[in-house]
Design goal:
The protein is mostly helical. The chain has one domain (about 5-90). The protein contains five helices and no strands.
Length: about 100
C-alpha cells in the first residue's frame, strides 16, 4: 500500500520533478546575502538580466509590484551608518527614499 506522499509523487510528471529538484539545488547554492532575500526578488533580477532561474527552469512568473518604470520598492533593514547610506547612494538608480526606524 502506498502512502499519500508516494501517491502524489507518482502523479507528478518527471519534468515537474526535474524542475523542483533544479529549483531546490539553486536555492541551496545561494550566497549568504541571497539567503536573506525573497526568492521573488532573486528570480526577478535573474530574468531581468536574461538569465535562467536554474539549470532546468528558464523563467518563472514572479509576484512583485512594479512601478511605472519597472522598478520594485524594497525594504532594507540594517544598522544605519554613514557607510551604508553611501553604499545605497552609489548603488541606487533614480530617486531613493530612505527612512530610519
Amino acid at each position: 500500500m502506498l502512502g499519500r506522499g508516494a501517491l502524489v509523487a507518482q502523479q507528478v510528471s518527471a519534468a515537474a520533478q526535474s524542475q523542483i529538484a533544479s529549483l531546490l539545488a539553486e536555492k541551496a547554492s545561494r550566497t549568504p546575502a541571497q539567503q536573506k532575500m525573497d526568492s521573488q526578488l532573486i528570480y526577478f533580477a535573474a530574468q531581468s538580466g536574461n538569465q535562467a532561474i536554474s539549470a532546468v527552469v528558464k523563467n518563472l512568473q514572479v509576484d512583485l509590484n512594479l512601478d511605472q518604470g519597472g522598478q520594485v520598492l524594497v525594504d532594507i533593514k540594517g544598522t544605519v551608518s554613514p557607510e551604508l547610506l553611501a553604499f545605497i547612494g552609489k548603488s541606487a538608480e533614480g530617486e531613493q527614499r530612505l527612512s530610519q526606524v
